[in-house]
Amino acid sequence: MKIIFYIFVLCLLTSHNSLFSQINIDIDSYLHQYKGDSLFQKQRFNDAITEYNKALEGNIISKKDILFYKAYCYAYLKIDSLAKSTMLDAFNKGFRYYFHNELENNWFLESMKNDLNFHSGYNKIVYLNHIFLKSNAEPKFPELRDSIQALVKLDQKHRTIGVRNDSLWKVQKIIDKQSQKFIEKTIKKFDGIPHYKDIGYDAIHGMLLIAAHSDNQNFLKLVIKNIETSINNGNTIDYNDYAILVDKYYLTYNNSQIFGTQVQLDGNNQEIKLKPLNGESSRYIKQLRFALGLPSLQQYLDDMKLINNVKINTDD
Fold it and tell me: pLDDT for 256-286, tens place per residue?
């Protein structure tokens, strides 16, 4: 009987660990990315490549961006073959560059114009924004896009006022649960986050906005895992949405966050307070936010102050 009991307990613990295992955020790799960017700015290109290579070995979502800047390093070092192959690798992983003025004045890309073997690659950058916007405007599933956008309106219906009104907040939470069920069904139907060509970029953002208002750990984990897979497969997803979802997940897991996206109003709704940071990430919050292209923590809190018209307090 004891053996049977121990087996039962072991199975229970294994199931529990599988169900509630943490999302793996590879902080070290993001720090290598940050170091690489810093070295790049100092024109220490060989050292930057070393740091970028270390970052690429880890489990992070910004690999296509790292490849892009690694290609720049090779270009500055006049290692043309590696510059081209690395840049194409960034394209293949879904890198998109949106700023045409910067493109037109960029010496690296301008130099590529003269290389017939890489001409198609240059054109791919220049016109990718047009392709992206066209795909975003004409999704494959416009009805699904419209349904998600309608849910986003409901998601925001009572959220600002509801924080200060218990009755409205209860209504909002009912809406949230129904909307989150729809998002979960959509992810399962598409076997992941739909591609921006399927529903458009705004609808993807809408899906993740709705998901971020969940406190269900398993649901958050489902969304985050599918975001990571989707980004690595070349989909276009805002890193800010990813950071928000990771922080919501970690707050449900151990009452701390990684990227510093979650704030709260105090009891009298008079000031903004940053929710607790994970011990390790609190030491490197500047680098982690920079690696994902997020504004500085102070700028973010200033934005929250403007939105909520309250004071700021960064104390834990």
Answer: 999 999 998 776 666 888 999 988 889 999 9
Q: State how far the alpha carbon of 99 is from the alpha carbons of 27, 105, 125, 128, 312, in Å.
A: 29, 10, 10, 10, 33
Residues contacting residue 143 through CB under 8 Å, at least 6 positions apart: none
CB-based contact 118:91 (threshold 8 Å)? no
Give the DSSP H/E element, type plus range, for residue 88: helix 80-92
Q: Any idea what the Cα angle at residue 17 is, between residues 12 and 20, rounded to 5°?
A: 120
Angle (deg, nearest 10), helices 142-157 and 201-212:
40
pLDDT 10s digits, 283-313: 999 999 999 989 999 999 888 888 777 655 5
Q: CA nearest 82: which of 51, 131, 118?
A: 118
Radius of gyration of the chain (CA): 22
Which helix (H) or strand (E) segment holds residue 110: the answer is helix 107-113
Residue 215: left if φ>0, alpha if ψ -120 to 50, beta else—which one? Answer: alpha
Alpha-carbon distance of 53 to 36, in angstroms, equals: 9
> Beta 263-265 vs 271-274: how paired, if at all?
antiparallel
Residue 262, C-beta contacts closer than 8 angstroms, at least 6 positions apart = 244, 247, 248, 251, 274, 275
CA distance linking residue 188 with residue 27, whole number of Å: 29
